[in-house]
Design a protein that fits this description.
CATH class of the largest domain: Alpha Beta
Number of domains: 2
Helix content: 25-40%
CATH superfamily of the largest domain: Translation initiation factor eif-2b, domain 2
Radius of gyration: 19 Å
Bound molecules: 5-S-methyl-1-O-phosphono-5-thio-D-ribulose
Amino acid sequence: MKALIAASIKYQDNQLLILDQYLLPHEQVWHECESIREMIHLIQSLQIRGAPAIGIAASILIAMLAERGTSKMELTQAISDCRAARPTAVNLMNCMDAMQQALEQSEFVDALVITAESIFEQDRLMCDAMATFGAQLINDGDNLLTHCNTGALATAGVGTALGVFLHAHQAGKNIHVWVDETRPLLQGGRLTAYELGNWKIDYTLICDNMAASLMAKGKVDKIFVGADRIAANGDFANKVGTYNLAVLANFHNVEFYVVAPVTTLDIDCESGTHIPIEQRASSEVTGVSGSFGSCQWAPKQAKVYNPAFDVTPANLVTGWVLDTGVYYPQDVLNGCLKTL
Ligand code: MRU
C-alpha cells in the first residue's frame, strides 16, 4: 500500500500509526496499531475518533493485514469486528462494507489495498469539496459556533465543519469561532481549540451551556456542525448537545448547517428515530480524565445517562453541506438525499 498521511493517521513502510486524540493537546503520542484488537480498543477509547477517521483507520489496518498474509477467513472476521466497534457513525459500516466487497474478489489482497487507498483519497477530496461549498455561506466578520471536533483530526483531509472555517479563513474572511467545549469528553476544548489555534483562526472556548446566552445577545451568526449519520429524511445524529444547539438556533433565528460527506448518508435509515445511539460509561459523566490524570467528582452511586450522540430533526436544519453541494429543506423534503 502506498503511504497515506493525515493529521491523525499515518501509514508508511508497512506501519500504521494513530495519533492519540485522548491525550491531545498536551501530549502527542502516536500508537503503532498491528491488530484488530488494538484498533477496536483505539476506536472505543476515542484515541481515534470522528466518523470518517474511524472507518479510514480500520480500512487501512485491514488492507495492511491482508498484505501481511492474513487469511480470508480471519479478514472476514476482522471486517465484521471493526464494523461493530461503534454503532452510530455509518461511515465505519460503509467502509467495512466496501472492504467486504473487495475481500470477495479473487485478487482480494490487491482489491483491499485499492479500496483502502481510495477510501482515504476520496475522503480527502470530499473534505475539500465541502469546505469550498460551505465557505460560500460565510460572510466576512461572521461569528460562528461549532460543537465537538470536525477538523483534520477526524478525517483524512481538512475536516467537515471545521474545514469550512479553514477555507473561509484562507479566503481572507475575518471570522471568529465560539467553540463548545463538548462535555463529557471535551472534544471541543481539547481538539477543536487545538486545531483552530494551529490554523491561527480566532476562537473563544465556551462551556456548552453558554451558547444560549450568546445567541440571545446576537453574538452568533451561524452554526456549523458535523454528523455521524444522516437519515434519508435529513434527520441526523451528531455529538450529544448538537440537538440543543439546533433548538436554540431555531428560537433565536440563527442559521444552522450540518456538514458531512456522502459517506455519512444512510438512505436505508428512514428517519432519525432509527439511528442507533451509542451509550457510554458512567465514569465519563461522573468525572473527567486525560493527559492531566483523572478526577471523579460525583457520588460513587450516582445513576448516569450518557448517550454519545443525539438526533437533530431535519426541520431545524437550514442547510446540509455535502461534498456534492448545499441542500436546503425543500430539496431534502423532495427526497434529494435518496438520490445522492
Ligand atoms: O465521539 P466522537 O468524538 O467520535 O464524535 C464525533 C462527532 O460527533 C463528530 O461531530 C462527527 O463524527 C463528525 S467528524 C468529521
